[in-house]
Amino acid sequence: MINLKSQREIALMREAGAIVGNLLNLFNSMVKPGITTIELDKFAENFIIKQNAKPAFKGFVSAFKQHYPYTLCTSVNESVVHEMPSKRILKEGDIISIDVGTYYKGYYGDGAYTFTVGEVDKSKLKLIEVTKYALELALKTAYPGNHLTDISHTIQTYVESNGFSIVRDFTGHGIGTKLHEEPTIFNFGKPSHGPVLEPGMTLAIEPMVNAGTYEVKVMNDGWRAVTLDGKPSAHFEHTIVITEGAPQILTLPVY
C-alpha cells in the first residue's frame, strides 16, 4: 500500500531531506584527489549527528540479513551502488557516486549525487550529465494523474537515446517512516502502467546509468555492485513529494 503523507509529515521529511541536500552540497568542495572515502564517511556521520538526526544507512539490514556498517555508500567508477567507504584514495579522473540517507524525527530523507574527482574525460562527463538530466526529466513527469511507469519510461528513453544503459537490478522506492516503502520505482518500462500519482506520495527517484552494459554483479562483500564490463556508472537521486502541481524536491540544500 502506498502511504499518502500529511502536510505535517511532509514538513518533517523536508527537514530530513535538507540535511541530505546540505551534506551533498558540502561534498562539492571536499571531493578531490587525495581524500579517502572513509574520511568522507566520518565527516558525514558527524555532520548528520550534529543536526540531531541519525545516519539512515548505518545498521540497515539487507535481504541477506547483513548489517550495513557505514553512513555513506561511496561508489567509485565501475561501482554502481553500495560500495562501502574504505581507505581507498580518490584519484584524478575518478568519478564517485555518494548516496546518503538521514532519519529525523521519525522520517527519512535519501539522496545521491555523482561527483568528478579533479579533471575527468569527456565520456565520463557525458555519462554524468545524461544521468543528472534523466532525473530532471523524471521530475517533470511526476505530476498527479500520470502513472508511475511514466517516470520509468521517461528515464529509459532519454538514457538509451544517448547511448547509455539503465541498470535493471536496483530501483527507486517510496519513502517516509521507512527508508524503503511502496512503490518500487523502476528506471525502465512501458508508459501508462502502475499506480496513478497522487498528491502526498513521497518518492525516492534514482536513475543508475552505465556507460556499457546494464548488467551488474554483486561482489563478495554482499553489498558493492559493479558493472559487468568494468565500464563506469553514474547515479543521482532526490526524494520528492507529489503535489497538486509540480513535484517538490525534499532533498535540496537550504544554504
What does this 3D model show about the protein?
The chain is of the alpha+beta class. It has one domain (7-249): Creatinase/methionine aminopeptidase superfamily (Creatine Amidinohydrolase), CATH 3.90.230. 28% of the residues lie in helices and 24% in strands. It has 4 helices and 15 strands. It has helices at 7-30, 37-50, 122-141, 148-161; strands at residues 54-55, 72-76, 79-81, 95-104, 107-116, 165-166, 172-174, 181-185, 202-205, 208-210, 216-218, 225-227, 233-235, 238-241, 248-249. Strands 8-7-9-14-15 form a 5-stranded antiparallel β-sheet. The mean pLDDT is 97.
SSE layout and pairing:
Elements: H1 7-30, H2 37-50, E1 54-55, E2 72-76, E3 79-81, E4 95-104, E5 107-116, H3 122-141, H4 148-161, E6 165-166, E7 172-174, E8 181-185, E9 202-205, E10 208-210, E11 216-218, E12 225-227, E13 233-235, E14 238-241, E15 248-249
Antiparallel strand pairs: 1-4, 2-4, 3-12, 4-5, 6-10, 7-8, 7-9, 9-14, 10-13, 11-12, 14-15
Please give the count of helices: 4
How are strands sequenced across the largest beta sheet?
8-7-9-14-15
Query: What is the H/E order?
Result: HHEEEEEHHEEEEEEEEEE
> Biggest sheet: strands, sense, closure?
5 strands, antiparallel
Report the CATH topology name.
Creatine Amidinohydrolase
Number of domains: 1
The share of residues in helices is 25-40%
Low-confidence stretches: none
Identify the CATH class. Answer: Alpha Beta
Mean pLDDT: 97
Structural class of the helix and strand makeup? alpha+beta
The share of residues in extended strands comes to 15-25%
Q: How many extended strands?
A: 15
Radius of gyration: 17 Å
CATH architecture: Alpha-Beta Complex
CATH homology group:
Creatinase/methionine aminopeptidase superfamily
Distance N terminus to C terminus? 35 Å
